[in-house]
Amino acid sequence: MIHFVLLIACAAVIYVACAWFVNAVEWLGQRLRVGPLAVGTILAAFGTALPESVVTFVAVVFGTGASQKDIGVGAAMGGPLALATVAYGVTGWMMLARRRRARVNAKAMVPVGGPAVDRGAAPAAPAPGDDTADLGRLARDQRWFLAIFVVKVTLGLVAFAVKPWLGLLFFAAYAVYFWREIRGGSGHGHGADLEPLLLQRRRPQPATWAVVTQTLATLAVIFAASQLFVHQLDAIGPMLGLSAAVTALLLSPIATELPEVMNAIIWVRQGKTRLAMANVSGAMMIQATVPSGLGLLFTPWRFDTALLISGLATMVAIGYLLLLLRTGRFTAKTVSFAAVFYLAFAVCLIPVLT
User: Fold this and answer.
1) Confidence of residue 50 (pLDDT cuts 50, 70, 90)
2) Is the pLDDT of residue 260 over 60?
C-alpha cells in the first residue's frame, strides 16, 4: 500500500512541478529571445529529457556489469517509443476533451436580443485548425527522427570496428537540429499570452533571477519525483506478477517520460497545443540522439528480440503519424490512436519475455 500511495503522490508532485516548469520556461524563452516553438522543442524538451539522459549516462559509463549497461540501452529505446505513442496519444485525448468543453460552453451561451451572452462560461477553445497548426514543421521533425532512428536500430543489429565512434555522429545530428530550431524558431512573438510567473505573481515582468530559479528548482523536483516514481514501479511490478524485464521495458519508459506527458496535458489545457506538440517532438529528437550516442560509445549496442520489437513499434508509430500528416488526417481523434501502438508492443513483448 505504501508503494501505491507513493506512486500517486509522485505523479501529483510531477504534475504540479510541470505546471510551474512550463510557466517558467515560457518566460525563459522570452528572456533568451527564442521563438515560442523553440521553447517547446529546445528549452522544455531539453529540461525534461536531461534527467533521463543523465540516468542513461550513469548506467552506460559507470555501470560495472552488463545488466546495468543494458538498462541504459533499454532506456535509450524505451523513451522514444513512449513519446511516439503514449505522449502523442495523451495529447490527442486532451485535445478532444478541450473541444468537448468548448461545445458545452457554447451551449451555455444564451441569446439575448440577437448576440450571444456568456453566462459565466469559460472562453471557447480555438478553432479546430488552430490545434494542429505548424503541421509542416511537425512532419519535418518526425522525418528527421525516423531517419535517425532507422540508423540507430540498424546499428543495433551489426558489429564492426569503428561502430562506437559513430556515436559522435548522433551528437552532431542533435547539434544541427538544435541550431536550426534556435535560428528558425523566432517567427512569432511572446508576451501577451504569458501568464504571470508563479514565483512573482504580482509582477507583470518578473526578475530574471526568479525565472531561472523557478526553472531550475522545478527541474530538480521533476527529476527527484520521476526517479522515485520509477522505483515504486520497480517494486509494484513483481507484486502484480510482472517480471523485472517486463517492468523495465513496459512501465519504466512511461514513468521516465511522464514529465513530457504532463507538459503536454498542461499546455493543451491552456490552449497552447502547438507548444505541447513541439515539446513531444523535441524530446523525441533528444531521445533519438543523445542517449543513443552514449550507448554506442560505451556499450556493444547489440539488440535482443525485445529491443528490436520496441524499435519496430516506434518506427510503425512514426509511420502512422507521418501518414496522417501527409494525407491531411492529423486530427485530435486520429492522433489519440497513437497510444494503441504501445498496447500492441506490450502484446508482442510479453510472450517474448516469458
Assistant:
1) confident
2) yes
